Amino acid sequence: MKHLLKMMDLSTEEIIEILNLADQLKYELKHGIPHDHLKGKTLGMIFRKASTRTRVSFETGMYQLGGNPLYLSASDMQIGRGEPIQDTARVLSRYIDGIMIRTFDQAEVENLAEYGNIPIINGLTDLSHPCQVLADLMTIREYKGKLDGLKMCYIGDGNNMANSLIVGGLKTGMSVSVACPENYHPAATTLAFAKKYDCFELTDDPIKAAKDADVIFTDVWASMGQEGEAEIRKKAFKGFQINDEVMAVAKPDAMVQHCLPAHREEEITAKVFEEHANEIFDEAENRLHAQKAVMVLLMGNKD
Ligand code: CP
Ligand code: NVA
């Protein structure tokens, strides 16, 4: 594993290795056991989009590992004025030890990896959100004790979260049922991968997708960059909501996960959100632990 560009690039073994190390680092943090595996290392964090969780968890995680996080707003960098990402990759590779980038186009992340010679971590693109899904898998495993054999359901937009959840769920042995409106399906590359699995289902019926699910996911109807489509999307996604009717057909002990930020009464009711708030905020916390594992494996010498 040289980079974390998308879930599709990770093998099942690599995902499990990350989750196991994340569990260990979480234990060490909670028990005051030092784990400064990235002493003297610097992570550059390039943001072309807003963030609360990704920025703060990477920054804090880097400090906890003994390293130095460097926040780089794209609008303050020369890439914001058109400097090619290929040149940015080659310059930053001379100064720092790794780059986390949050941007629009997946190609920008792939280009950084191709032209630089330091590890690149995808902190969200329009196509994928691997750091979030590693935290999600970690949280499901904490609550359910396993991943293999569980049923994951995703209801809503076939966006970056849907793409990464489908791949991450299938690779870890889960069956995955996705309910999206017809014009909002996951990416063609995701569907091509998923269709090889008998345990994958794509439907426009949220109740069908949620039936007997162990964990139910949703995400915003309008992602970052789609603000202008918010009203059209509100109409298109009507009915694609996690609510009591959906929860009633899932397993009685089904979890709910949401990467956050959440829009109450749009993709999830306030009632269901609050009933599952512990699981959702554990999921947010696990961003920290899962990303620390990714950084140690990519940038560090773990003794
Ligand atoms: N879930 C997530 O990535 O949150 P932020 O946009 O706040 O980083
Ligand atoms: N799909 C959302 C996820 C936010 C963490 C977005 O891209 O805005």
Automatic annotation (TrEMBL):
Has keyword RNA-binding? no
Reaction catalysed by this chain? Answer: carbamoyl phosphate + L-ornithine = L-citrulline + phosphate + H(+)
What Pfam families does this protein's entry cite?
OTCace (PF00185), OTCace_N (PF02729)
Which positions in this protein are listed as binding carbamoyl phosphate?
Answer: S51, T52, R53, T54, Q78, R102, H129, P130, C131, Q132, C259, L260, R287
Q: In which pathway does it act?
A: Amino-acid biosynthesis; L-arginine biosynthesis; L-arginine from L-ornithine and carbamoyl phosphate: step 1/3
Answer whether the UniProt record assigns the keyword Coiled coil to this protein. Answer: no
EC numbers: 2.1.3.3
- The source's domain of life comes to Bacteria
List each copy of the Aspartate/ornithine carbamoyltransferase carbamoyl-P binding domain by range. 2-142
Extract the coiled-coil ranges from the record. Answer: none
GO MF assignments: amino acid binding; ornithine carbamoyltransferase activity
Q: Which residues form the Aspartate/ornithine carbamoyltransferase Asp/Orn-binding domain?
A: 148-298
Enzyme class name: transferase
Q: Which UniProt keywords apply?
A: Cytoplasm, Transferase
Which amino acids does the record list as binding L-ornithine?
N160, D219, S223, M224
Location of this chain's protein in the cell? Cytoplasm
Q: Name one GO cellular component term.
A: cytoplasm
**Which GO biological process categories is it annotated with?**
citrulline biosynthetic process; L-arginine biosynthetic process via ornithine
NCBIfam families named in the record: orni_carb_tr (TIGR00658), PRK00779.1 (NF001986)
Q: What does this protein do?
A: Reversibly catalyzes the transfer of the carbamoyl group from carbamoyl phosphate (CP) to the N(epsilon) atom of ornithine (ORN) to produce L-citrulline.
What protein family does this chain belong to?
Belongs to the aspartate/ornithine carbamoyltransferase superfamily. OTCase family.
Q: Which PANTHER family match?
A: ORNITHINE CARBAMOYLTRANSFERASE, MITOCHONDRIAL, ORNITHINE TRANSCARBAMYLASE, MITOCHONDRIAL
Q: What is this protein called?
A: Ornithine carbamoyltransferase
This protein's species is [Eubacterium] siraeum DSM 15702
